C-alpha cells in the first residue's frame, strides 16, 4: 500500500532525528514524507535538510504560524499546509508527531490491517513513555479503541469522508467520532509500541486550560456528557481543577456560542454513541 506522512515540527531538534531515523528504517517505506518546519528557531531545519538530502521521499516545507503552542490549531494548521503539497495517489495518510520512535514494522502492520478489513478507516498503535524508574510504560486513555493524535493513520476513503482534520482542540477525538458516523471502524494494535519522547502536554501553555471544555461544547456533547467526561478526566489526572477548568470552558463556549465542529445530525450521533458507551460500562 502507498502512504503519505505529514509531520508538523516546531523546535524539535531534541527529538526529530530519532523520529526520522525510525521512519527511514520502516519495512514498508512511505511514498512521501512532508516535514512542515513551523516557525522553528533551533536546529530543526538543519536536521530536516540532512534527511532530505539522504532520502528521496522526504520534503521540507518552511512555514510561519503563531509562536504559541496551543493544542489543536497550531499543529493542524501546519498539517494542512503539508497536506496541500500532496496528490491523491495514496491508500492511507498519516499525521505524525516529531517526537516518536516507531517500531520498524509499524506501517507494514498498519497497511496489513487496512488490507485485511476494508471497513477499518483509522488505525494506530499505543504510546509508551518513560516513567520515574526510566522504564517504558503504557500511557493511554481509558478507551483502548482510541488512536492517539501523535500517530493517526487514515484510509483515503475515511479521511475524505470525515472532511480531513478539524482545526481546533478536540480534533483527535472528533475525527474518531466522525469515522464511526460514516460507518468506518477503528483499529488499535497492542503490538505496535511507540516510544513518545516528550511527555504529553508538556509544551502547552496556561491558555489551554479551558480549551478541553470548549472542545466538548464544539463536539456537541451537551452538559451531562461534558460533566461526566470531565469528571473522568479529573480522576485520571488526579486533579479536580481539571473538572473546574473543563466546565468553565464549556460554559464560556456556550455563552459565546462557540462554533460547533459538527452538524446537528453528527452531534446527535455523537451523543448517542457516547451514552451507549457509558451504559455498556455500567451494565458490563
TrEMBL record:
> Could you tell me the superkingdom of the organism this chain comes from?
Bacteria
Chain ranges of the Glycosyltransferase 2-like domain:
5-158
- InterPro entries given for it? Glyco_trans_2-like, Nucleotide-diphossugar_trans
Q: Which GO terms describe its molecular function?
A: glycosyltransferase activity
A single Pfam family, by name? Glycos_transf_2
UniProt keyword annotations, A-Z: Glycosyltransferase, Transferase
Which CDD domains does this one have? Glyco_tranf_GTA_type
The family note in this entry says: Belongs to the glycosyltransferase 2 family.
Stated name of the protein: Glycosyltransferase
Q: Which organism is it from?
A: Maribacter luteus
Amino acid at each position: 500500500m502507498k502512504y503519505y506522512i505529514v509531520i508538523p515540527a516546531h523546535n524539535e531538534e531534541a527529538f526529530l532525528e530519532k523520529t526520522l531515523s525510525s521512519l527511514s528504517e520502516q519495512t514498508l517505506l512511505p511514498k512521501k514524507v512532508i516535514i512542515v518546519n513551523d516557525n522553528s528557531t533551533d536546529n530543526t531545519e538543519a536536521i530536516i535538510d540532512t534527511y532530505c538530502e539522504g532520502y528521496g521521499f522526504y520534503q521540507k516545507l518552511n512555514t510561519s504560524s503563531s509562536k504559541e503552542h496551543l493544542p489543536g490549531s497550531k499543529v493542524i494548521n501546519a498539517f494542512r499546509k503539508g497536506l496541500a503539497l500532496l496528490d491523491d495517489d495514496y491508500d492511507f495518510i498519516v499525521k505524525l508527531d516529531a517526537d516518536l520512535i516507531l517500531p520498524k514494522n509499524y506501517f507494514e502492520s498498519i497497511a496489513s490491517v487496512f488490507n485485511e478489513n476494508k471497513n477499518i478507516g483509522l488505525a494506530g498503535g499505543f504510546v509508551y513513555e518513560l516513567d520515574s524508574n526510566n522504564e517504558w510504560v503504557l500511557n493511554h486513555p481509558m478507551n483502548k479503541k482510541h488512536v492517539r493524535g501523535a500517530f493517526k493513520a487514515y484510509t483515503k476513503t475515511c479521511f475524505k469522508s470525515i472532511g480531513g482534520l478539524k482545526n481546533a482542540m478536540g480534533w483527535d477525538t472528533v475525527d474518531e467520532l466522525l469515522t464511526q458516523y460514516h460507518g468506518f471502524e477503528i483499529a488499535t494494535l497492542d503490538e505496535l509500541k511507540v516510544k513518545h519522547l516528550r511527555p504529553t502536554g508538556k509544551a502547552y501553555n496556561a491558555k489551554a486550560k479551558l480549551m478541553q471544555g470548549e472542545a466538548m461544547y464544539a463536539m456537541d456533547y451537551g452538559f451531562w456528557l461534558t460533566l461526566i467526561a470531565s469528571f473522568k478526566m479529573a480522576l485520571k489526572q488526579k486533579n479536580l481543577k481539571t473538572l473546574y477548568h473543563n466546565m468553565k470552558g464549556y460554559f464560556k463556549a456556550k455563552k459565546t456560542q462557540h462554533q460547533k465542529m459538527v452538524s446537528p445530525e453528527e452531534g446527535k450521533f455523537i451523543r448517542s454513541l457516547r451514552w451507549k458507551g457509558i451504559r455498556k460500562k455500567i451494565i458490563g
